[in-house]
Design brief:
60% of the residues lie in helices and 0% in strands. By secondary structure, it is mainly alpha-helical. The chain has two domains: 90 residues, Helix-hairpin-Helix base-excision DNA repair enzymes (C-terminal) (Endonuclease Iii, domain 2), CATH 1.10.1670; 102 residues, Hypothetical protein, domain 2 (Endonuclease III, domain 1). Helix 3 crosses helix 4.
Length: 210
């Protein structure tokens, strides 16, 4: 077994549910949650959506709420004004062009306001079971630590991971790296002694907490 495959195997064995920690009630609310999560923690998004999704579960609900009320609902989230505008506009497009359904292709998803490549990859993976790799700050950072990629550009890291990660693990690799980075290999205080990858990580010794 290769080092990369062993890393994937251990991560999968140590994380019971490698999935997004965003709360949602439908495909539409998941898309909204992912758009809201840009440059914002999942914890903060979940605080906001716990209230928002009681009132808004569909594109029609959001459009009926309107821009002003939606902006007020999400104002504790970073970039809330732009996100509110994007959510209103993408809701209009979903209703007019996609029969209020979240599309299942990258091209259609990226045609929606506020939806870039990373968001599209998250949605395609979580809602449609596709083996897309979403590169966020955790995936970018751990890819360097684990020597999966030397690139700084998310797209280049994504392409490196697509080539490197065994097919059996591609569907879950983003969530595995995100959750490992969030709870074990933290940016500020990595828990190296508790890490299942300690002996496979060349950065473990220098990152060891004294």
């Amino acid at each position: 077994m290769s080092r990369v495959e062993e890393i994937c195997r251990r991560l999968e064995a140590s994380i019971n549910e490698p999935k997004s920690e965003l709360n949602y009630a439908s495909d539409y609310t998941f898309l909204v949650a992912v758009v809201l999560s840009a440059q914002t923690t999942d914890v903060q998004v979940n605080k906001v959506t716990s209230r928002l999704f009681e009132k808004c579960k569909t594109a029609d609900d959001v459009l009926n709420m309107g821009l002003e009320r939606l902006t007020d609902e999400i104002r504790s989230i970073g970039l809330y004004r732009n996100k509110a505008k994007n959510i209103i506009e993408l809701s209009k497009i979903l209703k007019l062009k996609f029969n209020s359904k979240v599309p299942d292709t990258r091209e259609d998803l990226e045609s929606l306001p506020g939806v870039g490549r990373k968001t599209a990859n998250v949605v395609l993976n979580a809602l449609f079971g596709k083996s897309t790799i979403a590169v966020d700050t955790h995936v970018l950072r751990l890819s360097k630590i684990l020597e999966f990629s030397r690139a700084n550009d998310p797209l280049k890291v994504e392409k490196d991971l697509e080539k490197l990660i065994p097919s059996a693990y591609k569907k879950n690799i983003s969530n595995l790296l995100v959750l490992h980075g969030r709870y074990v290999c933290k940016a500020q205080k990595p828990k190296c002694r508790d890490c299942v990858l300690f002996d496979l990580c060349n950065g473990a010794t220098k990152n060891m907490i004294q």
